[in-house]
Amino acid sequence: MQLGETCERCEVSGGGSAAAAGRRRWDENFTRQYTTLSKEEVVAALTVPSKLLFTRLAQTVACVGCRRSVERLFNQLRVSGHPALEPLVVTSSGALTVQRKYAIQTRTLGSLFSDHSNPLLLSPLPASLSLSLNAMLDNIPKLKKSGRCVLHSMEGVRCRPGGRSWREVWDVMDTTCRETVTLVCPDQLLATLDNYLRKHRFCQECKNKVCVYYLVVFT
């Protein structure tokens, strides 16, 4: 998830007086409900334990490959503490929550929860967000038999859809992200090669040839 430098200045642009009035009503309603809770209650309400998160994930995402990818990313963020999902964060205890500096500020949290694509929205965001996320999941091409998406199935490998999915992600990544994901660590590559050669039972002669080419590339 890539956000701007701050979330505090998120604003709804355009839309005229009707949009502004709708936004004011939404803000007033959100502030009224927010102030009924203490800061600690707000933080607790925004915290989701990993067990509940993975249960919900299994109920909503049919592709086992996508679920495993999410679980792996979640565990990596739990161990590293990297703020890759800011304003969300994965705690060391294994819970997903909103960073406290956003959770304890009414306007900031309201800006994160409001639907900027629809300034006239008067209902709480989670309902509309749930509908949009469900629509997004339903639009991902999946195999009828296994439920896997094309990126996590052998059918996808055979069909080779042209790499459009990763190109869409690449186009929205900044330069730093692109450099990071394309950086190959020699030690990790060697470990991956070793595991692959062992898994597929390559003969010793083939292993030696692969190692020779590895040395040619990195020396």
Largest beta sheet, briefly?
Answer: 3 strands, antiparallel
Oligomer: single chain
Order of helices and strands: HHEHHEEHHHHHHHH
Q: So what's the overall shape?
A: elongated
Q: Would you count the extended β strands for me?
A: 3
Class based on secondary structure composition and strand pairing: mainly alpha
Low-pLDDT ranges:
1-15, 119-125
How many structural units, i.e. domains?
2
Strand order of the largest sheet: 1-3-2
Rg: 23 Å
* Percent in helix: 55-70%
Gap between N and C termini, in Å? Answer: 36 Å
Number of continuous helical runs: 12
Strand content: under 5%
Mean pLDDT: 78
Structure description:
InterPro entries: GGNBP2. This is Gametogenetin-binding protein 2. The chain is mainly alpha-helical. It folds into two domains: 143 residues, no CATH class; 56 residues, no CATH class. The chain is 60% helix and 4% strand. Strands 1-3-2 form a three-stranded antiparallel beta sheet. Helix 11 runs antiparallel to helix 12.
